Amino acid sequence: MKEIALVIHEDATLSTITGAMDMFIHTNGLYRQTGKSQPFKLIIAGEKPNNNLFQINPQFVSYCQLSDLIKPDLIIVPAFYGDRDVMLKKHRDLVDWISTKYKNGSEIASLCSGIYFLAEAGLLPGRSCTAHWNDMEDIIRRYPDVNFLSDMVITDQEGIYTSGGAFSSLNLILYIIDKFCGRQVGIWASKMFSLDMDRISQSHFAVFKGQKQHKDTDILKAQAYIEENHHLALNMDDVACRSNMSKRNFIRRFKKATQNTPFEYLQRVKIEAAKRALENGSQNINLLMYDAGYNDIKTFREVFKKITGLTPQDYRRKYSRVDLVLN
User: What is the pLDDT of residue 92?
Assistant: First the structure.
């Protein structure tokens, strides 16, 4: 039996905790129905002597203070609300507790923004990790020694698990059930909770925001120029010249500021334009391809799928407002 501790505190996003708890409880129920021993012992662990945040059924899950936990097999750190700096300072004791428990042999998992607590605990240097795609720039800025994979839904490395944003974090719980209980139970849980099995990418959910959280005014101007003229045959030599830089220096500064080369950034802008057209009901792939600045359908499809994880046709089927209305 695996002892799993779900951490709670007053700033936690309770839906991430209750969603995970529900999946584990139902999996235990499956084992009870078949006369087998339950695979999970569930504990809600908080900072206070009593849980006053949400009601739990003691038949399925118990409550204890963090200080009373000895060595759970897995600790799950939920997402949280609030300013990152304020929350990390406020919950410093929890961060230190997480660090100590990992050193003592417990595995640690984060749901969505819970990754910040793992990073502050010093668990992520040199490791691959993920969270909500919207946190990528901030996490890379704060923790430059982590390998942040914004398109991934799940990472699993040396007893550290991280998950993608919002409700996609439940795919990590499905993964844990599959890993600890076996494939047959994992498939059952996938069907029970209507979660895609083996879903690994969240890239098609991402909204490209321009990566402008930097202070290089010359690069900001270059970004604006690329965005306004992405449909044209842009030459990066000309863009560098407009920025009064050599091409080599321009590429170096652009990548330092945005985490992309100018060419990669141009591709992201073009694909974002195509995504918006597909969302708004564009039915002509060739036309929106030209509008986005491509003239080769094969190249367009390859780049689109590389960035979003979906083909243009699949993206339109998922997100077209017209299709949603018609269906």
Answer: 96
> What are 94-128's pLDDT values in tens digits?
999 999 999 999 999 999 999 999 999 999 998 88
Q: Are 266 and 234 in contact (CB under 8 A)?
A: yes
pLDDT higher than threshold 90 for residue 77: yes
Q: What tokens does 55 get?
A: 């009601």
pLDDT band at 275 (very low <50, low <70, confident <90, very high): confident
Structure tokens at 298: 């094969």
Q: Check residue 198 and give its pLDDT.
A: 64
Cβ-based neighbours of 252, under 8 Å, separated by 6 or more: none
Percentage of the residues of the chain whose pLDDT score is greater than 90: 54
Q: What type of residue sits at position 321?
A: R
Q: Three-state SS for 110?
A: strand
Nearest to 112 by CA among 186, 166, 58, 193: 166
From first CA to last CA, the distance across the chain in angstroms is 45
Q: Residue 211: exposed, middle, or buried by beta-carbon count in 10 A (0-12, 13-18, 19+)?
A: middle
Q: What is the CATH number of domain 2-205?
A: 3.40.50.880
- pTM for the model stands at 0.66
Q: What dotted CATH number matches 217-326?
A: 1.10.10.60
Domain range summary for the chain, segments of one domain joined by +: 2-205, 217-326
Tokens of 214: 């930097």
- How buried is 314 (Cβ within 10 angstroms: 0-12 exposed, 13-18 middle, 19+ buried)? middle
Outline where DSSP puts E strands in the chain: 2-7, 40-46, 62-65, 74-77, 107-110, 128-129, 147-148, 154-157, 160-163
Query: For residue range 33-71, what is the model confidence (pLDDT) as tens digits?
Result: 989 999 999 999 998 888 888 888 888 999 999 999 999
